[in-house]
Amino acid sequence: MKDKILEQFARLYAGSASPLIIRSPGRINIIGEHTDYNEGFVLPAAIDKAIYVALTKRGDDEIHLYAADYNESHIVNTASVEISDKHWPNYILGVVDQLQKKGFALGGFNLLIDGDVPLGAGLSSSAAVECATAFALNELFGLGLSKLQMVQAAQKAEHVFAGVMCGIMDQFASMFGKKDHVIRLDCRSIEYEYVPFELKNYKILLLNTNVKHSLSSSAYNERRRQCEQGVAWVKEYHSEVISLRDVTMQMLDEYVLPKDALIYKRCKYIVEEIRRLLQGCADLQQDDIKALGKKMFRTHEGLSKEYEVSCGELDFLVDAVKDNPDIIGARMMGGGFGGCTINIIKEDAIESLVQKLKPLYKQAFNKDLDHYIAGIENGTSLVHQNIAVPGV
Ligand code: GLA
């Protein structure tokens, strides 16, 4: 990938110095879905699919962007960074905007973006772009930001330039990922712990519905508001409550159920999921992957029936593996409405499962089923240092 990018960069920005290249990975999440913006816990990891950003400084105030996936360019001035009608520049420009709002005077730069994170598959390609950009600009202009500050700028960029009021999980996992470990992140205190994730003869299999989840931002924001409404009703009686993290089932039964059955259902899923994740972490500590797997199936039930962020295709794929003894856990992953299911499966059963599922899926939905085996890798890093070309 690095050589391909260097070669493309040289062709595209002839005369430029050799670029800095930053790699920022996509993510998976074992359990703890939609809990991040409710100040609960999540259990994500960075994967072996990543976004790469290559860049050099320019002598002027122009920002030149090029996306290899779309074979498209976009040029703006540093003084007029705005939301673009094209989708992809926003994840880069949103970060530029955040850094400028923090008072950093960025100069112009040439940037190329490429990678192998499938887009719209729920593997957080957008967070990977944002983190790669934040890391790259921090490096290029010597801004002195901490990793957490970069994560926060990346998250804010998603809020402002993509309109998704996301939590911190995706950006955090992309930036802080650690090979062969999952991250147990407390989204309230931002304290985190790396937990070894050793699956022995099991693997993480992602099944991509090929339903793009990009239309889900309004539903995502609506879920967030529904959770906030539930909290507001509980707060009328318990002023100490700040988020669903502080809410018990008893409180929901008393204060939310009489008011609105739908909001109750949403909040119930979250309160149970926060608890489920903590129990799942205990399973991991006891090396009981099977118990964790069972909880993943229950998470899917909740996401599908109570939180209602699944879709027919995701439900089909989880249903299809539910009674298969080679699969110890499966569920939809990420924001929902499409993307991938995550499956913990016996390594030697992968091939036959995929061969069996592909035609069934095609028959049911007239769509192709893609699959990836996800390895757990390190988070955002510099993979190529810029070397000044003599005379440039
Ligand atoms: C998206 C968001 C995350 C998180 C997940 C659901 O990926 O970006 O912050 O809320 O959905 O767990």
Lay out the secondary structure.
Blueprint: H1 2-12, E1 20-29, E2 41-42, E3 44-57, E4 62-67, E5 72-77, H2 89-101, E6 109-115, H3 125-140, H4 147-162, H5 169-176, E7 181-186, E8 192-196, E9 202-208, H6 217-235, H7 249-256, H8 261-285, H9 289-306, H10 312-321, E10 327-332, E11 340-346, H11 350-365, E12 370-374, E13 381-384
Bound molecules: alpha-D-galactopyranose.
The site of alpha-D-galactopyranose has 11 residues, from helix 5.
Largest sheet entry: 6 strands, mixed
Small molecules held by this entry: alpha-D-galactopyranose
Please tally the β strands and state the result.
13
CATH top level assignment of the largest domain: Alpha Beta
How would you characterize the overall build of this protein?
The chain has eleven helices and 13 strands. Strand 4 (62-67) and strand 5 form a beta hairpin. 41% of the residues lie in helices and 22% in strands. The mean pLDDT is 95. The two termini are 25 Å apart. The chain has 392 residues and is of the alpha+beta class. The chain has two domains: 2-196 and 377-384, Ribosomal Protein S5, domain 2 (2-Layer Sandwich); 202-374, Alpha-Beta Plaits. Alpha-D-galactopyranose (GLA) binds next to helix 5.
